[in-house]
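Dear V.,

Thank you for sending over the compound details. I've combined the ligand you provided, 2-acetamido-2-deoxy-beta-D-glucopyranose, with the protein sequence from our construct and run the structure prediction for the complex. I'm sharing the raw inputs here so there's no ambiguity about protonation or stereochemistry in the SMILES, which I know was a concern on your side last time.
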Amino acid sequence: MALQRVLLLSFYIVFFIAFTTTSAASDVQLLLQNIKPSLQGNTDNLLLSSWNISVPLCQWRGLKWVFTNGTSLLCSDLSSPQWTSLSLYRNPSLHLVSLQLPSANLSGTLPRELGELSTLQSLYLGVNGLHGSIPLELGYSSSLSDIELSGNSLTGTLPTSIWNLCEKMVSFKIHGNSLSGSLPSPALPDATCKNLQFLDFGQNRFSGDFPLFITRFNGLKELDLGDNNFSGPVPETLAALKLEKLNLSHNNFSGVLPNFGESKFGVDVFEGNNPTLCGHPLGPCSGSSGMSPGAIAGIVIGLMAALVVVASLLIGYFQGKKKRHADEEEEEFEEVEDEEAGCGEGKLILFQGGEHLTLEDVLNATGQVMEKTSYGTIYKAKLADGGTIALRLLREGSCKDGGTCLTVIRQLGRVRHENLIPLRAFYQGKRGEKLLIYDYLPNRNLHELLHESRVGKPVLNWARRHKIALGIARGLAHLHGLETPITHGNVRTKNVLVDEFFVARLTEFGLDKIMIPAVADEIVSVAKAEGYKAPELQRMKKCNSRSDVYAFGILLLEILLGKKPGKNGRNGDNVDLPALVKVAVLEETTMEVFDMELLKGIRNPMEEGLVQALRLAMGCCAPVATVRPSMDEVVRQLEENRPRNRSALYSPAETRSGSGTPF
Ligand SMILES: *[C@@H]1O[C@H](CO)[C@@H](O)[C@H](O)[C@H]1NC(C)=O
Ligand SMILES: *[C@@H]1O[C@H](CO)[C@@H](O)[C@H](O)[C@H]1NC(C)=O
Ligand SMILES: *[C@@H]1O[C@H](CO)[C@@H](O)[C@H](O)[C@H]1NC(C)=O
Ligand SMILES: *[C@@H]1O[C@H](CO)[C@@H](O)[C@H](O)[C@H]1NC(C)=O
Ligand SMILES: *[C@@H]1O[C@H](CO)[C@@H](O)[C@H](O)[C@H]1NC(C)=O
Ligand SMILES: *[C@@H]1O[C@H](CO)[C@@H](O)[C@H](O)[C@H]1NC(C)=O
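Below is the predicted structure of the protein with 2-acetamido-2-deoxy-beta-D-glucopyranose bound, written out as structure tokens.
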């Protein structure tokens, strides 16, 4: 016993030391070793020559810094010791927040290492001679909100990863370059980039149709697509944005302009397009007008077997009432809220991003079963207009108290976060059947990624696993931090979808609240069998944020160890992961518990944040709920202990196929 305690103690001491001393001073290193040489190209640059360790950090040009504790480094006071401090650049708690070198005669290229500046908020490199392409890694600089690269000589296409910044982005300007190709759409089809106000793609060589996804950016104030090579119609929905400035001139747009309202925009906004472009403020359209482009005739596609189930549930309602228009659906929503306040009558409730759905759409969709669980079935369903949705049909008998049920559903319908799959609509049938309608994402779940070996699957190195874990943690922290906090209630790798950029998205959150206890208990028993159940949990209704943290801890161990969690697995397939780690620590074989694939390219597990992650996971799985960290704390620790070598994140094409390694 005594020996064990000594060993355990040393285990914690090692972790503690590793945890407190590992903090990369890497922003400075990145600036000197990668960013400076890349930006200046082949010629020495006057301003960049100030980035030199023999110059005090405060005098490095164009940079703003912040300490880890959130305090800004103030360099304005020339009498302060910081202004002349020659050792400041070694301070590991300094991070770059702003890089501003406009009109600085830069003649090089944008370095991919910009993506590693995780606290960088603004990047202003306008009016320089930068050439080459916009590196895909820029989209991984997770704090970037203002990007100004106008007036350079950038070429190539815009990387899709730029929309990784969607949530935070306020301003994105790349006016006056030589960028080409069509504009990539965000990975999430209904991304609204809610903070985005300024978008300037003007004077480039972009082509293709009007980028429709922009019409969903509902905070947009200024949009410039002028002087490009866009063609086709201008979508009707553009007029719904509250744009203050718009420039569509000098493209090849055609067809009927949307109705922006009298005298909102002048002729100059639309001049220089295809002569067929018409409608106010341009000339009137000749012939029969009013044909809104893209209107699709409703065609009933034969129901496939799987969806007949859904259809038969809905058909009674559908035959009774036919409601089509969005405003009527709005009314329905009110009706449900005010009068019935419950789940008695069959109703379709629409949430943000699901406004286009009608009951007919859902009814006429063709579907296939994706997954069956004890409490419901998930379908992938194709809509007549070509869109795809995911339908989750919950078994009858959930939601005994109608009022609270709908309150919870409405709360779930408001949740929007990049790491959570949004609920777009909800249907409650007369007999208590429930249909939850989500975005369909064609991604693999984390369980498959971790445990199923298949050719073509991406290598899951530490950088990628860390990104996945951080995404999940952020999603959970968001749920727990809401004004009315939501407990996920069913955290497990099967409920995490991972896209090709290793962005993780959680599904199934908050469902325990709408189940009757018997159904909820079934979820708990599955969670128990799968090893995610917190020891203090007896019934699902006692689920709380701390039990989510426990399940996250197990999930993080699963990510680190590459083994399926569970107790008393029959074929040795499932393992009590916390127990395994404890034994490894006692036997001083901690390094051996990590998944081999994860250790690839790792030289020092302490520096890479691996050991800290293991410690964090064990903390989350603490048997006593009160000592577990909050999800906010988990996010903070994961952010502080990032893997150093994140380059592998940036090559999504790297797969296991050619490696020939026995993982
Ligand atoms: C840094 O500045 C010193 C002194 O001005 C100079 O000798 C040295 O070459 C500079 N180093 C770099 C990497 O520019
Ligand atoms: C933040 O950290 C810096 C450097 O470590 C220190 O000088 C400063 O006083 C700290 N500020 C606060 C508010 O703790
Ligand atoms: C800009 O850089 C070029 C070399 O690329 C140099 O010849 C020129 O003098 C620089 N101009 C200024 C204003 O520094
Ligand atoms: C629109 O953009 C073009 C090309 O960038 C510019 O010449 C024109 O002045 C702009 N028009 C408006 C109304 O902003
Ligand atoms: C513009 O796009 C058309 C096809 O839509 C293409 O034929 C033409 O070459 C493009 N023009 C420029 C200047 O890129
Ligand atoms: C403009 O678009 C039309 C089709 O709408 C196409 O026939 C024409 O070639 C395009 N013109 C240019 C200059 O790209």
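A first observation: The CA atoms of residues 260 and 458 lie 46 Å apart.

Warm regards,
I. M.
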